[in-house]
């Protein structure tokens, strides 16, 4: 069920990534201030934006789980957070590379943008031990959903706080004054954003499909191994 | 292909080039690692499914033999 539409989605993602990379290196002009280093921005900013949005989406799925009690929403929430954490790793590494090239330091501790993202990332890293510390499946799903909702609400608040804070060195890409990106750079950025968002959706669907397949196999194994339960006869026709 | 490359503007791969390359390589490597992990998961699922199919077949054969007796 989760694998439905995965093939066209994967093809669209690969095509969009190829188009975006072509635009980055052969269409977007060099930045007058930063030069070639600015090309990192086209992978770093979409990854960061999609990761943060993914955390919020995970929170929304968690709300659906708490409202309905349907475990499917818990799986959606878990996978959304999981893929966003992976994107978060890429954000931190690409950001550190850009910082080294631009500022001469891998990390600057007094920059609110960097530290706030690290805080959000570390917060979501605690999701895994928190979740698996609870043995009872029902409680695990419920507590994880509460965590996802609370942390998901923290993400936009954190983002707004950073936007309002005085940035020391980190550039404001979508400045509200003195212009923003020129048209060609904006087009390239939007393509990159669409590509990374598509990639996120594709990976979420892949992960859900894999989890669903594993779950079905476990169910099948339990049913087949059940001695004299009658489950064997119910399941056997499906296997054959 | 060579003609196309000749027409494209030269990328300024001096000092900044290694950092830009590094950032994009990190992105690609993370993707490849993820795909490799997914491939390993898929292989495990396939193996488990094969085991289950074998188990179900032997179970069905056993039931048939018992009925014939």
Verbal overview:
Chain A is mostly helical. Helices cover 76% and strands 0% of the residues of chain A. Chain A is built from eight helices and no strands. With 69 residues, chain B is an all-alpha fold. The longest helix of chain B has 54 residues. Chain B is rod-shaped and about 80 Å long.
Summarize the structure.
With 240 residues, chain A is mainly α. In chain A, 76% of the residues lie in helices and 0% in strands. Chain A starts with 5 loop residues before the first helix and ends with a helix.
Task: Spell out the blueprint of helices and strands.
The complex is a heterodimer of chains A (240) and B (69).
Chain A (H helix, E strand, L loop, with lengths): L5 H21 L14 H28 L2 H33 L8 H14 L1 H6 L4 H28 L18 H43 L5 H9 L1
Helix pairs in contact in A: 1-7, 2-3, 2-6, 2-7, 3-4, 3-6, 3-7, 4-6, 7-8
Chain B lengths: L1 H6 L7 H54 L1
Question: Any descriptors?
Answer:
heterodimer; B: 69 residues; 2 helices
Largest interface: A-B, 36 and 30 residues
Shape summary of chain B: rod-shaped
The quaternary structure here is heterodimer
Write down the overall geometry of chain A: globular
Q: Note the total helix count of chain A.
A: 8
Task: Note the run of SSEs of chain A as H and E.
Answer: HHHHHHHH
Fraction of residues in H or I helices of chain A = over 70%
Q: How much of the residues of chain A is beta strand, in percent?
A: under 5%
Count every beta strand of chain B, where a strand is a DSSP E run of 2 or more residues.
0
| Helical proportion of chain B, percent range | over 70%
Task: Give the biggest sheet of chain A.
Answer: none
Structural class label of chain A: mainly alpha
Estimated radius of gyration of chain A = 22 Å
* Alpha carbon gap, first and last residue of chain A: 20 Å
